[in-house]
Design brief:
elongated, alpha+beta, five-stranded mixed β-sheet, about 120 residues, about 25% strand
Length: about 120
């Protein structure tokens, strides 16, 4: 059985609240899970200690059993010092999209036109 440590969403509409759970990777996101390992409340301030609450002993147990944390949970574990910080590289994230590139080109052409006229005089 492939195990995952992941987030299960709870809370009402527009008010998310997540449980950090150990579950079978084939089960639905908010469906059946084996054990609740902590909570995550994204509505709290980033420096609030209750924003992310983890049961460290049980998480270490499940990782020893072969459970793989999802990317978001892995970031929580890195912040808690339970996991080595992974090197992440997304070089395309800074490249603007097609529409934004076109707008930037038009803006550059508009700002360059008065400068060229001033240089011609």
């Amino acid at each position: 059985m492939a195990m995952k440590i992941r987030l299960a969403r709870g809370g009402s509409k527009k008010r998310p609240f997540y449980a950090v759970v150990a579950s079978d990777s084939r089960s639905p996101r908010d469906g059946r899970f084996i054990e609740k390992l902590g909570t995550y409340n994204p509505l709290l301030a980033k420096d609030d200690e209750k924003r992310v609450v983890l049961n460290v002993e049980r998480i270490q147990h499940w990782i020893a059993q072969g459970a793989q944390p999802t990317d978001r949970v892995a970031r929580f574990l890195e912040a808690a010092g339970l996991r080595e910080k992974a090197a992440r590289s997304n070089p395309k994230s800074a490249v603007p999209g097609k529409a934004m590139a076109e707008r930037a080109a038009k803006k550059a052409a508009r700002s360059a036109a008065p400068a060229e006229e001033a240089a011609a005089e």
